[in-house]
Amino acid sequence: MKEMSSRNEYRVQYYLGSVANGNLTPNEKWQITIMNSKIVNDVPENNLWHLYLAPFIKIIKRLYGIVLGKQKKFMLVVGDIEQKKISLLQRKGIDSVFVHDYNLSSFQSQLKFCFVKNRLVEWPNDGVLLRSLNKERHWGYLKERPIDTLPFPNKKSIAVWRGSTTGDFKMLANRFQLVRQWFRMNPMVDVGFTNIVQDPKNYGEFFQKNDISGYRCSEMSPSKLLEYKYIISVRGNDKDSGLNWKLASRSVVFMARPTVNSWLMESELIPNVHYVLLKDDFSDLAEKVQWANENINLMKQISRNARKYMKRFEDVSNERSIEMEVIKRYFKYTQG
Q1: Is it the case that residue 13 has pLDDT exceeding 90?
Q2: With contact defined as beta carbons under 8 Å apart, do 182 and 285 qualify?
Q3: Contacts for 243 with CB less than 8 Å, ≥ 6 apart
Q4: Would you say residue 52 lies in a domain?
Q5: Are strands 189-195 and 252-256 parallel, antiparallel or unpaired?
């Protein structure tokens, strides 16, 4: 890779987290070889191999070849890092959602050596962020971006959200709180669940008579959502998988302060500059919609700022180079 620009160098350091400090020696017990067949058996769902391990191994082969690639050892978190799961792991140790040979007695102390899709804000430097993990779900908009040609003034002056019942009602800024509070409660807000997933027992108690089915409504495609001036972003298990395309659209994102960092570098997003900030309990949603409708020029500027922010991720070749540099430095700093 040619000499990096200062902006790219900053991003490499950001993604490396604690590993960027160098001279960190992981515990030999948990290092694994990427070609070890046990990796496949450790992954509980077959599609996780294709979403997480396969793209990572492809990069390793490109960087080092098959022979040298087999000598590289690493830890890779398969799936989301979420607060609910963290609590379980701290009590019981690492479970099968992690690729591993040995259980780890202390999750957080080892997390800094793991390649991850996301990091919790309370552990801002623990984990090495990659773009390639479940890439299509988060970055597929680059090649299949919904057409957004409707001028902003012609969009509906309503805040809209659709999504599945992922996450946990005990988390900050969760979608259960959003829907329970605003479902069919205000003409300026249109929110609802489209799919009931995971185990309803985990969130049924949050709703009257444990009945979440009453909060369902019709699905909306991204193209349909883009007919609205304001699109709400709210986390699921870790982050809103649609946040990337929402920021890249000509609508304005409404959301609480992000609780997760990913390749998108959410901590770099500035409230009321790149998005309209909501309270964690969404109690100010209707008030913020009214304020937005009274400040249309400011909303146009926020939308422009968000699109400009997303431009940095559009050069696929540059993104690939940054990710490969992150991986190269990981092995250099941890294994020499």
Answers
A1: yes
A2: yes
A3: 233, 253, 255, 264, 266
A4: yes
A5: unpaired
Q: Is residue 18 part of a domain?
A: yes
**pTM score:** 0.86
Q: Are residues 300 and 320 in the same domain?
A: no
pLDDT tens string 242-272: 999 999 999 999 999 999 999 999 999 999 9
Statement to judge: residues 98 and 149 lie in one domain: no
Is there a domain that residue 51 lies in? yes
As a whole number, mean pLDDT of residues 4-18 equals 94
Is 186 a domain residue?
Answer: yes
Nearest one of 92, 139, 100, 147 to 117, comparing CA atoms: 139
**Closest among 104, 78, 76, 77 to 92, alpha carbons compared:** 104
Determine the Cα–Cα distance for residues 221 and 240; give it in Å rounded to an integer: 15
Please tell me the total count of domains within the chain. Answer: 2
User: What pLDDT does 199 receive?
Assistant: 78
Any residues with CB less than 8 A from the CB of 192 and at least 6 apart, and which? 161, 162, 179, 183, 184, 215, 216, 217
For residue 237, what are the domain limits? Answer: 141-311
Side-chain half-sphere CA neighbours of 207 within 13 A: 23
218: CB partners within 8 A, 6+ apart: 194
